[in-house]
Design goal:
It is a single chain. The chain is built from 12 helices and 2 strands, in the order H-H-H-E-H-H-H-H-H-H-H-E-H-H. It is mostly helical. Strands 1-2 form a two-stranded antiparallel sheet. The longest helix is centred in the first third of the chain and has 40 residues, at 3-42. It is elongated and about 95 Å long. The mean pLDDT is 84.
Amino acid sequence: MTVANMTAWVRAVLLGVLLGLGTIGAHAADNDAAAQVAREATQPSNNAPVWRAVNEPTEHYSAIKTPEAGVLIQTSGQEWRLVRNGVITVYGGWLLSLALAGVAMFFAIRGPIKLKEAKSGKLVKRFTLVERYSHWAVAITFIALAITGIFIMWGRYFLLPVIGGSLYGPLLFVFKNIHNLVGPLFTISLVVMFLVYVRDNMPTGDDIKWLLSGGKRAAHRFNGGEKLWFWAGVTFLGIVVSWTGWVLNSTIPGIDYFTRDTMQLANIVHGVAATLFVLMSIGHIYIGSIGTEGAYDGMSSGYVDESWAKEHHSLWLDDVNAGGDHRGKRSAS
């Protein structure tokens, strides 16, 4: 066989293969077209095949050259919606409601914890001006975030039916912007508060004894419950809600683009951590205000009565009397 004959034979084979593939493709196309016609006859306007193609995990073509630009529908978005609107919204809402109702019921039945001894009239300085200001900075920003966050998460369930959508939409827009603006201030205040209070919140063996006794053992400047709130609530949950909040605001330095997966995960973690943070704060705010007689005085004026210090923080009072805590200066009273 000559070279010319061989070349002609190869061309004939390739042409036959191409014609065969074309015929198969044409039959397949005809079959798809016939199936589509049959589907239109029995199921008018059924676009299921189109949406199946759109929902494919592979990225489609897009003229916009940014990550995920070709992903029209993210399949994991449905999972995020179920967790956010199902687990967090439902169970978180019930937990907060039960916590508030429980505190209100406890106060109505028990009332504030009264001092066992009458006030002595002698005052002991418990908090410096820097300590008080750093605490109030965190408290005020936290309350603003908690209130706006509750409206953002649950407002459509208890507020929208009352005021209607025409008012609820602009109000929610205001709450969202307040939430986003106060968030960074909360983070800064949290860092300052940590640096100010961390020295006196280092755990000791006495804290474990205090916790195991249910608060009946002697305590230093901060008891085991207060230290648990400082480390588990203020520090850990504070870091989590701050970090995820910065991610949701797309303000993490050095990161230019946040994918939908990242945003959805951050939103879920932020919602869970924020709910736990508010739950823990309910107990802290109650005990530090109306729940315990004399507790609020220390954060409002900086001074507490000696009887209060003796009953709740006797080891700290001993340290003050021995001159070991220079902050525990007595007033002229």
